[in-house]
């Protein structure tokens, strides 16, 4: 669905805008932003404050190319070690390979201040578009994106207000659907393990949807644990062993991602627990690597490659054709994959139920 109010081409900011906002000449603005020449500290701060407020980013393309865009698409993601994002990149690359556009990747490590730096650097090279993970950004990052004058597609998440276009899934809905499946399976003593929520907004939203749906079924999370770090098998084994030691009556464990879920599953198998009758397990993402396990972890496919393709198609269309797809919202439906770890009394929900 298009938001017609966003379809107008946005005018890129110029030195003149910063000059007018700061009350100094364009030449002085240029010297300050390029850190050249002798400029008083008061004038420097006035210019930098005006630039930050406007979201202006200096243009690093010199000479004849200074007013043009380059055939680069800035792709800003939180991690390369997380298996989710390489699949997103594959989807983006498959589309852009058929165009003159090339993706350039920046990694934020889930840190807002790092995102600001990466975004500032990438925008200074005047890319043709931006694909950026998530809807939560610092004020400075949001201002830069809004002022860039190029198509912006936020990906992975649709639970929130988009700057321009957005492609993803509702993580709150994903959490709710998993909770419904667990409750329908007859499980009542539930534990949760996941990443630190302030850093991973999408995991937080899944957890919110999950607990909301459990409450409607008269259930609650009886034990929970959060951690900072990668999505590692070893971490999942360790966390699961500790949780079951202190809460041995749990009959279901829900993990914020498949890798710690797979580690938990390995611990349960080694401990001789009957899966899924004695204890059920589920993760999130539908990581392809785990398809080789003899016991398949219940999970939900987050549509990563599809998200990457759709985002790249929007950028390519806006660059080649027109801005008619600016402001587009595409919400995909994650697919439940019950595997072998969620089946005690489960009559699985039909998709979208």
What keyword list fits this structure?
disordered N terminus, 12 strands, four-stranded parallel sheet, single chain, 353 residues, disordered C terminus, six-stranded parallel sheet, 16% strand
Description:
- There is one protein chain.
- The protein is an alpha/beta fold and 353 residues long.
- Helix 1 (15-22) crosses helix 2.
- The chain is built from eleven helices and twelve strands.
- 46% of the residues are buried.
- Helices cover 39% and strands 16% of the residues.
- Strands 2-1-3-4-5-11 form a six-stranded parallel beta sheet. Strands 7-6-8-9 form a four-stranded parallel beta sheet, sandwiched between helices.
- It is elongated.
SSE topology:
Blueprint: H1 15-22, H2 26-33, H3 41-54, E1 72-77, H4 84-96, E2 102-107, H5 112-123, E3 129-133, H6 139-147, E4 152-157, E5 165-169, H7 171-184, E6 190-195, H8 201-216, E7 221-227, H9 233-246, E8 252-255, H10 258-270, E9 280-282, E10 299-301, H11 304-320, E11 329-331, E12 335-337
Parallel strand pairs: 1-2, 1-3, 3-4, 4-5, 5-11, 6-7, 6-8, 8-9
Antiparallel strand pairs: 10-12
């Amino acid at each position: 669905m298009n938001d017609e109010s966003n379809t107008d081409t946005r005018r890129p900011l110029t030195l003149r805008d910063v000059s007018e906002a700061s009350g100094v000449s364009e030449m002085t603005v240029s010297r300050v932003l390029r850190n050249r020449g002798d400029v008083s500290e008061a004038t420097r701060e006035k210019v930098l404050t005006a630039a930050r407020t406007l979201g202006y980013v200096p243009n690093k393309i010199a000479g004849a190319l200074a007013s043009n865009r380059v055939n680069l698409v800035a792709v800003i993601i939180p991690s390369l070690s997380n298996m989710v994002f390489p699949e997103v990149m594959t989807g983006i690359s498959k589309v852009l390979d058929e165009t003159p556009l090339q993706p350039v990747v920046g990694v934020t490590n889930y840190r807002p201040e790092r995102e600001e730096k990466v975004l500032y650097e990438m925008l200074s090279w005047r890319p043709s578009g931006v694909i950026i993970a998530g809807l939560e950004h610092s004020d400075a990052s949001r201002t830069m994106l809004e002022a860039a004058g190029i198509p912006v597609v936020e990906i992975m998440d649709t639970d929130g207000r988009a700057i321009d276009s957005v492609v993803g899934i509702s993580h709150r809905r994903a959490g709710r659907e998993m909770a419904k499946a667990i409750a329908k399976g007859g499980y009542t003593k539930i534990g949760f393990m996941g990443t630190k929520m302030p850093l991973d907004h999408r995991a937080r939203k899944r957890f919110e949807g999950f607990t909301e749906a459990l409450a409607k079924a008269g259930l609650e999370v009886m034990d929970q644990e959060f951690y900072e770090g990668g999505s590692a098998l070893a971490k999942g084994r360790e966390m699961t062993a500790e949780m079951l030691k202190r809460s041995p009556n749990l009959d279901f464990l829900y993990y914020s991602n498949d890798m710690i879920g797979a580690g938990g599953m390995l611990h349960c198998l080694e401990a001789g627990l009957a899966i899924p009758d004695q204890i059920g397990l589920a993760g999130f993402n539908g990581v392809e690597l785990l398809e080789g396990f003899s016991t398949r972890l219940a999970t939900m496919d987050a549509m990563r490659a599809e998200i990457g393709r759709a985002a790249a198609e929007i950028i390519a269309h806006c660059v080649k054709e027109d801005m008619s797809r600016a402001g587009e919202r595409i919400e995909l439906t994650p697919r439940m994959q019950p595997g072998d770890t969620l089946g005690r009394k489960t009559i699985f929900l039909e998709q979208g139920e």
